[in-house]
Amino acid sequence: MAGSSSCSLLVLFVLFGCAFAAKDILLGGKTDAWKVPSSESDSLNKWASSVRFQVGDHLILKYEAGKDSVLQVSKEDYDSCNISKPIKHYNDGNTKVRFDHSGPYYYISGEKGHCEKGQKLTVVVMSLKGGSRPIVAFSPSPSPAEVEGPAASAVAPAPTSGAAVLQGGGVFVAVGVFVAMWLF
Ligand SMILES: *[C@@H]1O[C@H](CO)[C@@H](O)[C@H](O)[C@H]1NC(C)=O
C-alpha cells in the first residue's frame, strides 16, 4: 500500500515538475522588500499570504547590512513589536532563513520603530503532507477537460498512448510470429 502510493507520488513529482522541491523565496519578490512598507496594501504580510511556504523552503531577505536587521520573535513579541528577546537575530544584509518545521514564523525589524510602522512579517509554513494539496488542486482541472472530450487525450496522454504502444507492439509481434510460421 505504502509502496504503491509513494510510487504514484513519484509519478506526480515528474508530472508536476517536482512540486515538492524546496524553494528559495525572495521576500516580496524583490531585493529591497525588507523595509517599512509605504502603505498597508504594500505590506509584507499581504505578499506573504499570496505565497506558498513549505517545510524545507528558504526565505531570503535582502537589506542594507548595518542599517536594518531581521529578528525572529515569538507571537507575543511580534504583536507588541518587542525587540528585546529575539529567538534569532540576523543582520548580514542577505539573510537566508530555512523553515524546518511547519507552522507560523514571526519576523520583525530590529530597528527601533520599524516594526510599529509595519515592517513585520508572518510566514505560515505548511508541512510536506500539506504539500500534497497542489495535486488535489490540480486534479479538478483534468476532469472538466475529460467532459469536453478531445482535450481529455491531451490532458492524459501518458497512460493512453503508453497502452496503445504496448498493444501496437503486441499486435506487431503477433503478426511477426504469424508471418514467421507461414514462411517456415
Ligand atoms: C519586552 O519583553 C521583555 C521580556 O521578554 C519584557 O521584560 C519587556 O518589558 C518587554 N518590553 C515591552 C516594551 O513590552
TrEMBL record:
Lipid bilayer topology: Lipid-anchor; GPI-anchor
Entry superkingdom: Eukaryota
Homology family: Belongs to the early nodulin-like (ENODL) family.
GO cellular component: plasma membrane; side of membrane
Molecular function in Gene Ontology: electron transfer activity
SUPFAM superfamilies found in the cross-reference section: Cupredoxins
Phytocyanin domain segment(s): 23-127
Protein name from the UniProt record: Plastocyanin-like domain protein
